[in-house]
Amino acid sequence: MKISTVVFDLDGTLMDTLQDLAESTNYALREYGFPQHSLEAVRSFVGNGVRKLIERALPQGEENPLFEEVFRTFKEHYVAHCRDHSGLYAGIADMLQTLSDTGYQLAVVSNKLQKGVTELQHSYFSSWIKVAVGERPEVRRKPAPDMVLQAIRELEADLRETVYVGDSDVDIETARQCGIPCISVLWGFRDREFLETCGAAHFAATPQDIIQLIRRGLE
Fold this sequence. Notes:
By secondary structure, this protein is α/β, with parallel strands linked by helices. It has helices at residues 18-31, 39-45, 50-57, 67-81, 92-102, 114-125, 146-155, 169-178, 192-197, 207-215; strands spanning 5-8, 15-16, 87-88, 105-113, 131-135, 162-166, 182-185, 202-204. The protein folds into two domains: 5-16 and 87-215, HAD superfamily/HAD-like (Rossmann fold); 18-81, DNA polymerase, domain 1 (Orthogonal Bundle), CATH 1.10.150.240. The longest helix has 15 residues, at 67-81. It starts with a strand and ends with a helix. This is phosphoglycolate phosphatase.
């Protein structure tokens, strides 16, 4: 397979954002007197966007009469604190630099709010990745293909030469809906056994593995 473009998931793939997500979730819950959650519990809640995160964390989910207030508080807190503990995983910067230097077009797509995605892009990977698509009204969240297709349009790239890189079942399904292959990383929020049950076919144990798989055309 000829590969010219690589689209990355953000949380659990490029960046370890779990602690900041957990702290903002628990801040919002605490403000309204609801039970808080452990880091591992929040890990199981992420992957389908922050609205779904709060739905899973809040008793009664969206049926809770205070849902919108809790969700608004979470968003305000997270935008202000999304960089407190988050950072690129080890080896990610070198991997992005290598791919960029080699001429690959790179993008990020995330179910995180667009404002948060833009903030993290500017702070951590704008040197290599110019297109970063987050949750916005006119673009459906993953696993719908919209975010990837939007990134491809902004890059003026070829979807047929694109590979997707993510850490979750949502990412595998997103790639499937786009008709492109997916590389599943093993340092993120889901383990290999779970990813295999979701149909994962290509695995990266380290960021350097991503480079090797892409160079070989996912053979």
